[in-house]
Amino acid sequence: MATRTAEAAAQDRTPVGGGNQEEGTPIPFQERYLKAYRSSILARQLEEKLASLYRAGKIVGGVYMGRGQESFSASLASCLDRERHDIFGPLIRDMAGRLAFGEPLLDAPRTYFGSAEGPMHGRDGNVHRGRPREGMPAMISHLGSMISVVCGMLLARKFRGQAGAVGASCIGDGGTSTGACHEALNLAGVEKLPLVLAVANNHYAYSTPCSRQYACGDLVERAAGYGFTGHSVDGTDLAACLEVFDRAVGAARAGEGPQMVVGSLLRLSGHGEHDDSSYITQEDRDAPYGRDCLRVARAQLLEKGWASESELERWDHEITDEVDAAIATAQKESGPDPLKESWHALATERLNEGFYDE
Amino acid sequence: MATRTAEAAAQDRTPVGGGNQEEGTPIPFQERYLKAYRSSILARQLEEKLASLYRAGKIVGGVYMGRGQESFSASLASCLDRERHDIFGPLIRDMAGRLAFGEPLLDAPRTYFGSAEGPMHGRDGNVHRGRPREGMPAMISHLGSMISVVCGMLLARKFRGQAGAVGASCIGDGGTSTGACHEALNLAGVEKLPLVLAVANNHYAYSTPCSRQYACGDLVERAAGYGFTGHSVDGTDLAACLEVFDRAVGAARAGEGPQMVVGSLLRLSGHGEHDDSSYITQEDRDAPYGRDCLRVARAQLLEKGWASESELERWDHEITDEVDAAIATAQKESGPDPLKESWHALATERLNEGFYDE
Amino acid sequence: MSITYLEAIREAQAKALAEDPRVYIYGQDVGRFGGAFKATKNLAEEYPGRVIDAPISEDAMIGTAIGAAIEGMRPIVEMQFADFSSIAFNQIINQAATHYWRTGVPCPFVVRLPSGGNEGSGPFHSQCMESLYSHYPGLVVLTPATVEDAYTMLLEALTIDDPVIYCEHKFLYYHLKADGLPNSSLPIGKARVARAGVHATLVTYSAMLHESLRAARELEQEGWDIEVVDLRSARPIDTDTILASVARTGRLLCVGESFPWGGLTAEVVARICAEGFHLLDAPPLRLNAKDTPIPYHPNLWRSHRPTSSSISATLRKLLRA
Amino acid sequence: MSITYLEAIREAQAKALAEDPRVYIYGQDVGRFGGAFKATKNLAEEYPGRVIDAPISEDAMIGTAIGAAIEGMRPIVEMQFADFSSIAFNQIINQAATHYWRTGVPCPFVVRLPSGGNEGSGPFHSQCMESLYSHYPGLVVLTPATVEDAYTMLLEALTIDDPVIYCEHKFLYYHLKADGLPNSSLPIGKARVARAGVHATLVTYSAMLHESLRAARELEQEGWDIEVVDLRSARPIDTDTILASVARTGRLLCVGESFPWGGLTAEVVARICAEGFHLLDAPPLRLNAKDTPIPYHPNLWRSHRPTSSSISATLRKLLRA
Ligand SMILES: Cc1ncc(C[n+]2csc(CCOP(=O)(O)OP(=O)(O)O)c2C)c(N)n1
Ligand SMILES: Cc1ncc(C[n+]2csc(CCOP(=O)(O)OP(=O)(O)O)c2C)c(N)n1
Ligand SMILES: [Mg+2]
Ligand SMILES: [Mg+2]
Known about the structure:
- The complex is a heterotetramer, with 2 copies of chain A and 2 copies of chain C.
- Chain A is globular and about 60 Å long.
- By secondary structure, chain A is of the alpha/beta class.
- Chain A has a 5-stranded parallel sheet, sandwiched between helices. A two-stranded antiparallel ribbon of chain A has the order 4-5.
- Chain A is built from 12 helices and 7 strands.
- In chain A, helix 7 links the parallel strand 2 (167-172) and strand 3.
- Chain A has helices spanning 6-11, 29-55, 70-78, 95-101, 107-113, 145-159, 179-190, 222-225, 238-253, 282-286, 293-304, 309-332, and strands at 87-89, 167-172, 195-201, 204-205, 208-209, 229-234, 259-264.
- Chain C is an alpha/beta fold.
- Chain C has 2 domains: 3-178, Rossmann fold; 192-320, Rossmann fold (3-Layer(aba) Sandwich).
- Chain C is built from 11 helices and 14 strands.
- Chain C has helices at 5-19, 43-46, 58-70, 89-103, 130-134, 147-157, 207-221, 239-249, 263-276, 298-304, 308-320; strands spanning 3-4, 23-27, 51-53, 74-78, 110-115, 140-142, 164-169, 177-178, 192-195, 200-204, 226-230, 233-235, 252-255, 285-287.
- The longest helix of chain C is centred in the N-terminal third of the chain and has 15 residues, at 5-19.
- The structure holds thiamine diphosphate (2 copies) and magnesium ion (2 copies).
- Residues 172-174, 202, 204-205 of chain A line the site of one magnesium ion.
């Protein structure tokens, strides 16, 4: 259960095939990097648009941003492989990972607007969306509750003999305090499931700092107690994140049991767009984990020579157009019609009760 | 967060004052040892009587034995100090600890018989008993749920400025899988409570072996993740148990934060007296942790010269008489009268609703 | 050949395992040990790898069932006692019950809840939770009262595309016997007139059916002919069958074993009053457990739950009104 | 000076902290941040060490409240949303609710549940849980509908020797205003006739009081005079006040915001039918939320919960019968 540090991870940052070592063609590191980067930019721009629509009163409820967490989230998802029946169980701040895993760009705006065309048909909103049949469970709010669902999806694959499928689940520093998280991780250890748990330690749970959330030095210390292999990573460093998730996903796929990856980063937004997050200290903002992961990634891209300044700008513009188009489409769609709703909660039609049928 | 091994603990088995270093007179090791031993014998005999009464159909529901766990349980309680407002939150197999902490001998038989004179007045039974006002919370069945209650009792002491009080809570290997256990331990770490968690790893949860319960090597590996100091001990060795609990209680009292003591031992009985425990493997029975702690203690007593064979026998006889007397008393008492019951669940009399008052 | 209620539950699971590769069983001590009540006796041996011991983690047990169910499996989760499902409450009502409605993807699994009390079981090993779970949209809640229903309803539950809370009554496990296993039965959702009568309708379910039938026989001695309706499921409630009965008798008593505030008996009374008010010749009555936790001592326990004698007394009151 | 429902809750907590050294507040983000809804704004600064940020551990939050309560403290636990109390369900119903009855030692604390929906809150930030908790013996369940009650009932709750589930309605937080804080009020357990009338009795509570009063005003235009009873508490229910009203009007509609199966409205109807059957001139009706989880989209949400217009429609049906 050796715990790898971010530095150690950074040292052997060689292009590896990770998720795909055994079957298929290994995806080159550069390709995966670019995919993760693109998803991150897409997520950032999309969420910023959604945030301004919220401020303009066009979105009800709330908007929850992954700002600062895109690299971490997108790297995880970029190491997953849907053809191998991998699972991605996102949480609040995983827009980038969702997009990298393959969530259609329209899903988020449709869900925020409550479009009847969206995956949740206006019944649920914002981050509470998914495509359970496509390896993306739809999160409920209760933190920690989704991890065991991913475990169950992995159990189903095991029963069906779909060996080699990996399930990823995401949690925040705050979510680790839940009993549900504990029970699921313990069960994953006992069942030796190919689970990769990504802990995005963004140093706050709403307004609550880590000092009021847990008493160990680093959450990766929990890994051993569950029989997980633990990994730590600088969550603002896209290359490092990709490398560590590549390793974790590869290990899970290879039957080495569950993996925990703790990323250190900072929530560069409010808890939701209603929150000015003035409680985030200057010290946190100035810390290494307070860096904007997208700026780090841009510098890495230039340094590696994988993109020029002008290419980066072109990508930004392309993505702006994509985002604008998606938002425009979703915004035009109508919401569900209450008069056409069945108001039935059961799939088994004949067992639904008609409380107000006249 | 150093983890001490049983051997390390055994090496410095010197008579220390433990719980009482700072105030009052330190209780000599020998005295504490004898108290723990006596409570253990008392518990063993009492439970054996209760078991035979169960088999004879005189006790309904079930009888749950601490056989094999007496030394571990009694040592913990012997290191606690009721004058300093310490708390002892027992679980299923802590008869010995209860007695050492000061539970009246009559409480157990009265509760098993459902006597109206007992602390639970026949409303609750067997191990579900306590004296919450005297530092002994009354356990509910749901495993893990009592730890946070002990935390709350400690918080109350903190608010009232009763510094130096220690709270002990007990859990089994199976109970560590509960979300409730996790939430409470995490909270205790965050609040830096003087909690001592005794984990009696008796290798089975009902019929379920540890391999189906957790995936770490040793449960003490969980301590670090909660910011607890971890200790391991041979739970069949009374001297070693006393020494390690003395240290743990002392550390908690001295403000060094929460402590976790994992004892390795074997449940030398069925889960309850209805269970023949034939699933317990010969390997487990033959393992060092499969020893009968009372036999170990007897040998230690003789070896240390703290008692002779004949004294040990005399104590046994004295205790038999005590147990017989207690059982006879409790058995004579009548149960609650349903016609005299208020059938009201609220303390606030005027808010109770009368569903069936005519 | 005689078969008990408990054996019927075992047989239904054996049949499901044999015939449906999607079925597996997850629960504490359900494997080699065969479960705390032996409801899975020998199943681990007969169906290797499909009857699995769970850690003491009810929340995660249900969470994994949800995950496996949405992937097309048909998990059976055994709670060691119904009372411990309180730990899985959130997963049941917020995740399982809402899943189909939120996503359009069904979430079919069965949670078996060994329910109800016995002498000496106390507050935490005796609860009846049908009233709790039925409150929540998205769940099917079954309360079989007979050996036949225990068998057929469990099998049918495994064909339903929704999460099913299967409340099996511990008090019936060993006492209740039938001559064999049925091949057909009423579908889930239909109540059954367990005893025809003309003077009053007694609506009940699960173990209370038997107390009610005893009470009806007692009242027969006094010249009263009580119709007894076995609800079979708490969710849905077969309101039509109750209304038809009340139309015949003009009087309604509803008897349940869960706590008296709200719950199944209140729901039945409220529905019948809304839809069949003019059929009633007397105030409809309810009888439930008493308004305290469930007591340990046999004397208290026997007073806490409805029994044939308290049911008879309430019937007399109803008939007098 | 005008004060909102939310401010009244803050003021009651401030007063309790000032006057009762046993009181402290535990909840996620309740400290410096002042709580997700600012119900504890500035309290951490004013009462250092007594308004404490909790980890995301609802089970343990309630567990510690129980431990502190039996030691003589008077904890207030804030759930960030009522919906998250499902995680603490076991501690609330099995540990807190049974404690006094089992041990004779009271277990007094208050859990604050920010309840009810808003547009866009969705299935997990909108729930009303009074019907759930009231099912369990050993709990007091409060549902204040006015600024005055929000204040006085919270203060009174802290004097009660039992666990209190205090259901505060988020929809009322900012909209509902009063001119000041009252010095006295009806005691907990008493319902209030919020509007006198003669043609029908409308029993309701919490946010639904205001929809009901609007409906009553609407019906007034049509010549109907509706009596509106504000229950104030779901546990206990003040049956006498309802019976007295039904005796005057002969008709009963009960309106609630929780799910339609069972629950508070069913309990009210069942009680009134049992005890006041002959007072009723027409079938008693209920109106609750629809039988699905609570929807996100404002269009759906507005249809899901009862509103003045659906209440009016049901009243017309009741008056026609
Ligand atoms: C069980 C539960 N309790 C409370 C909440 C309310 N809540 C939503 S997000 C949040 C903070 C989450 O913090 P963290 O897990 O660190 O994730 P982050 O928001 O920082 O990404 C809280 C308390 C919840 N969703 N679930
Ligand atoms: C939450 C919960 N689930 C299930 C049970 C049923 N149960 C009672 S004791 C037990 C086994 C406990 O094992 P362990 O914690 O190792 O304690 P031991 O009995 O070995 O002392 C189980 C499963 C329970 N009491 N609580
Ligand atoms: Mg966080
Ligand atoms: Mg054990």
